[in-house]
Specification:
The complex is a heterodimer of chains A (388) and B (512).
Chain A (H helix, E strand, L loop, with lengths): L1 H23 L10 E11 L5 E9 L15 E9 L2 H9 L5 E3 L5 E5 H6 L2 H10 L8 E5 L3 H6 L8 H10 L8 H8 L5 E13 L5 E14 L2 E6 L1 H10 L7 E4 L6 E18 L2 E18 L7 H30 L6 H8 L1 H7 L3 H4 L4 E12 L9
Parallel strand pairs in A: 1-4, 1-5, 5-6, 6-7, 12-13
Antiparallel strand pairs in A: 1-2, 2-3, 7-8, 8-9, 10-11, 11-12
Chain B lengths: L1 H4 L12 H4 L7 H11 L6 E8 L3 E8 L5 H13 L9 H7 L5 E4 L2 H9 L4 E4 L5 E4 L29 H11 L5 E8 L5 E8 L5 H12 L9 H8 L11 E3 L2 H9 L3 E5 L5 E4 L10 H5 L2 H30 L7 H11 L6 H21 L2 H21 L5 H14 L5 H21 L1 H17 L1 E2 L2 E2 L50
Antiparallel strand pairs in B: 1-2, 2-4, 3-5, 4-5, 6-7, 7-9, 8-10, 9-10, 11-12
Classes of the chains: A alpha/beta (388), B alpha+beta (512).
Main location (chain A): membrane
Protein name (chain A): Spore germination protein KC
Membrane topology (chain A): Lipid-anchor
Chain lengths: 388, 512
């Protein structure tokens, strides 16, 4: 009896288990060596309303037999295909590969400037958003030239370009915008958005070999999903500070001509206070920054409390200049609001906002913006003045 | 097809010579001798030694060669009885007074005689006496007490139980000198007639538990009990579970500690392994060292054990699931190197994992049974085969070797072999689930295990206590080992009758 029950139990267990395998199992099984892992993608405009998708595919090198691959650099292959949209181009690209294209590890998407300026970028981004494999945390970029050119570069430290860009963004070089951030900005009240802008920098080395590397040089400004302009590094800094984001932590102030003093920011905080008084709209930007002095290229004795106040003033001035430049370029010039003013007004004055939300771009340039910067030097360092 | 396997009527084979057994001894010595000889027919090791007490009364000494102390028989029994100083014919009572022994019992039936003879006590029978004397001269070669090999400790007593029941009892008695340490003796096995002792501490152990253990043991009807494993399977709560529901140990200190927590220890003659009931899942993660080393170290090590227990069950499955279903979960850099390493492997991750895990289990088993000298050779071959050759031949990826190695080491972190092997066993079905359904399968497997563990009981005590049911106080000895000055109460489920084991507030600190 018991033996019978044991055998019944074992048999039924394996029967159930085999059903797991035979009926349901493995339909979405994809072994690692059946995948072509995409590590970077670039999307450019083509003729006839088409787009060109360029991908960087990782080529795994067999390491059996105990042989080490000669270079530690990963082999990547770049291929491109044309299609009516991203999915179409991807499926055209699939024709060239024996393995299934895998988007799960593609964390950088670079859009060509011409495509971005054409507008309706959201229709392409929808693929990244809707397809189950690409990540919401993948980062978006706009290239100054053709996006596919960026992918062709072979970086020196990282294994592929996508990694370089992502790591720079994580370090807060330029704007750090993920797919999710971009979508939030586009769908926010003002509709103003931004993406980091990539340029290619040529640099001559000693051995006359051209060193080409991608740099984040400024920011592309979007109105909804259409790129309408770009700003340089200094203005980007101002823009990001208003958005309560960090750029590179060093700021340099200029006490006198030829003199410099640099602060390494440790903490920074921004508050936007909107105000409507007698029908006049204004915003006050409160920025407070704390940091330590890393270089004193001036004759100021920074050890005395009175002088650190002066240093703070110089740096506050520098910060204000950046912000004003950004405001002038973007708010007044492009009439776009990537700063988040619209959200601030909507939160504080929902009724008034309802009246202006359809013609925000008309209201925006007339808004008076006041910048109040407060810098605090925490650590002046151990020496008083420079060697002289 | 089940019909073939259905129960066939089982024939009970009666033991021959059974009919004579319960008869009382006869007053005729020759008749007694005849019956004993018929019972022990064909047993060439039984010695019948007829002699005359003081040259007058006929007497007979029956014993089994090798079980009794023959020197003592000669010097303490035969020498005084056969000396001519006794002048009149004497009865059994007076004879026993002449024997220089402290342990003499009177036997009245053949059954008593057989039991005593089998235990090594020589039987003295006399003419015209309806009873005989069993002389306590049992002595056989026994193993000396050595350190238990299966449960070695860094710090702690180095003695282990031996095969002899009497020695084992004495070891327990030396640890717990209180007369409250009680023992119930039973004999199980129609042929082996093995002595089994249920030890408990009166006033700590629950009476219903003792009754239950006794009940379950009384139901056991087997021909022999050669090891405690025979009865373990016959008295456990769930026979289909891979998890052990009784703790086996070779160490008297472990047995004593469990007695003091209100548990019952079952000692079986002929094996150094005693059984402890009831136990919980966490009992198998309590090494004896935990209580001898300082509590901080013990706690960290115990947490590590539990963590590695999870690794030993789930790591291969996780590797299979991630590398064949959820590639997006791995950090990109790791995925790229995984892809490179797996490039030349022809199998899917599941097959790869199964090959390696089965080979590892084979190597472990092979190394276990072999003599020590050959065992080393096997492990070298194994290391080369697993570590190097399989990778070079392109059978498996180096990453899989690492996974198998970590899993192997992790499974040996479980201090109890019986629990460790159960955990090693269940990782194979989970691996298959992970290989067919990815992480979902792994989670299903985990849920199934947890449900099973929640349902499991060991002599009525929930196996997962103190987490399910949650008993906050008991956590002091589950995931961590609290300092001794905090372990004031006995475990609730076994020692609730006598709750406090020591005085409170014993934390050493300066006087106020």
């Amino acid at each position: 009896m018991i033996l019978c029950r044991i055998i019944k139990a074992i048999l039924s267990f394996f029967l159930v288990l085999s059903q797991c395998v035979l009926l349901t199992g493995c339909w979405d099984n994809k072994e690692l060596n059946q995948l072509a892992i995409i590590v970077g993608a670039a999307i450019d405009k083509e003729k006839n309303n088409k787009i060109k998708l360029t991908v960087q595919v990782f080529l795994p090198q067999s390491q059996s037999g105990g042989q080490q691959s000669s270079s530690s650099k990963a082999q990547v292959e770049i291929k491109s295909a044309v299609g009516t949209n991203l999915a179409d181009a991807a499926s055209n690209l699939q024709r060239e590969y024996s393995r299934r294209l895998f988007w799960g590890h593609c964390k950088t998407y670079i859009f060509g400037r011409s495509l971005s300026e054409k507008g309706n970028l959201g229709r392409q981004i929808d693929f990244i958003d809707r397809h189950p494999e690409p990540r919401e945390e993948s980062r978006l970029y706009v290239s100054d030239g053709k996006a596919s050119d960026i992918l062709q570069l072979s970086p020196s430290l990282e294994k592929y370009v996508g990694d370089v860009l992502r790591k720079m963004s994580e370090m807060h070089v330029g704007a750090n915008i993920t797919l999710k951030d971009f979508e939030l900005m586009v769908t926010s009240e003002g509709g103003g958005a931004l993406l980091p802008l990539i340029k290619i920098k040529h640099q001559n080395n000693d051995d006359r070999k051209m060193n080409v590397s991608p740099i984040i040089g400024g920011t592309a400004i979007f109105m909804r999903d259409k790129m309408i302009g770009r700003i340089n590094e200094v203005e980007s800094k101002g823009l990001l500070w208003v958005r309560n984001q960090n750029e590179l932590p060093e700021i340099t102030g200029y006490p006198k001509k030829g003199q410099t003093i640099s602060l390494y920011l440790k903490r920074t905080k921004t508050n936007l206070i909107p105000k409507i008084e007698k029908g006049k709209w204004s915003v006050t930007i409160y920025i407070s920054k704390e940091g330590m002095i890393v270089q004193n290229g001036s004759k100021i004795n920074i050890m005395s409390k009175k002088n650190t106040k002066r240093v703070e003033n110089y740096i506050e001035k520098d910060v204000s200049i950046s912000i004003e430049k950004a405001l002038k370029q973007v708010k007044d010039g492009m009439k776009v609001d990537p700063f988040g003013f619209a959200t601030a007004f909507h939160r504080k004055y929902p009724k008034e906002w309802e009246k202006v939300k359809d013609h925000w771009e008309v209201v925006l340039p007339d808004i008076y913006v006041e910048t109040k910067v407060k810098v605090h030097v925490l650590e002046p360092g151990l020496s008083t003045t420079t060697l002289e | 097809m089940f019909r073939i396997l259905k129960k066939r009527p089982q024939k009970q084979h009666p033991i021959e010579g059974m009919s004579n057994r319960n008869l009382p001894l006869s007053s005729e010595l020759d008749k007694n001798l005849q019956i004993l000889k018929s019972i022990y027919k064909g047993c060439i090791d039984v010695i019948y030694h007829p002699f005359l007490i003081a040259g007058k009364t006929k007497a007979l000494l029956v014993y089994i060669d090798g079980l009794s102390d023959t020197e003592q028989i000669d010097s303490s029994v035969l020498a005084p009885l056969m000396s001519k100083t006794i002048d009149k014919s004497i009865n059994l009572q007076e004879t026993c007074e002449n024997i220089q022994l402290s342990n003499i019992r009177v036997v009245k039936t053949y059954d008593d005689c057989i039991k005593n003879i089998s235990n090594g006590n020589p039987i003295l029978l006399m003419e015209h006496e309806e009873q005989g004397a069993a002389l306590g001269l049992a002595k056989w070669d026994k193993r000396s007490i050595i350190e238990p090999e299966s449960e070695s400790v860094i710090r702690g007593p180095r003695e282990g139980f031996v095969e002899t029941l009497g020695v084992n009892i004495s070891m327990l008695r030396r640890k717990i000198r209180s007369p409250n340490l009680k023992m119930i003796k039973m004999n199980i096995g129609s042929y082996s007639d093995t002595s089994i002792i249920i030890a408990y501490i009166e006033g700590i152990a629950n009476q219903s538990l003792i009754d239950e253990v006794q009940n379950r043991l009384q139901k056991v009807e087997v021909d022999s009990v050669l090891e405690s494993g025979y009865i373990e399977e016959l008295i456990e709560d769930n026979v289909f579970s891979p998890f052990p529901q009784l703790l086996d140990t070779e160490r008297p200190d472990v047995a004593s500690a469990n007695l003091l927590e209100g548990r019952v220890v079952i000692l079986v003659d002929g094996t150094p392994f005693v059984l402890i009931a009831p136990v919980s899942f966490f009992s198998f993660f309590q090494a004896p060292d935990d209580y001898y080393q300082r509590y901080l170290i013990s706690s960290v090590i115990r947490i590590m054990r539990l963590f590695f227990m999870l690794i030993s069950v789930f790591l291969p499955s996780l590797y299979v699931a991630v590398s064949s279903f959820h590639q997006e979960m791995v950090p990109t850099t790791l995925l790229l190197s995984m892809a490179s390493l797996r490039e030349s492997v022809p199998f899917t991750a599941l097959i790869e994992a199964l090959i390696m895990e089965i080979v590892f289990e084979a190597l472990r088993e092979a190394g276990l049974r072999l003599p020590k000298q050959i065992g080393a050779a096997v492990s070298i071959v194994g290391a080369l085969v697993i570590g190097q050759a399989a990778v070079q031949a392109g059978l498996v990826s180096p990453l899989m070797v690492i996974v198998v190695a970590i899993t192997g080491i992790a499974s040996f972190m479980v201090p109890r072999y019986s629990e460790g092997i159960a955990l090693r066993l269940i990782r194979f079905p989970i691996m298959m689930l992970a290989g067919t359904m990815g992480l979902h399968g792994l989670v299903f497997g985990f849920i199934a295990i947890v449900i099973h563990l929640c349902k499991l009981r060991s002599f009525g005590v929930p196996y997962l206590s103190p987490i399910a049911p949650t008993i906050g106080r008991e956590m002091k000895d589950a995931f961590i080992r609290s300092p001794w000055w905090m372990l004031n109460t006995r475990p609730h489920l076994t020692g609730r009758i006598n709750k406090y084991r020591q005085a409170p507030n014993q934390q050493p600190k300066p006087k106020k």
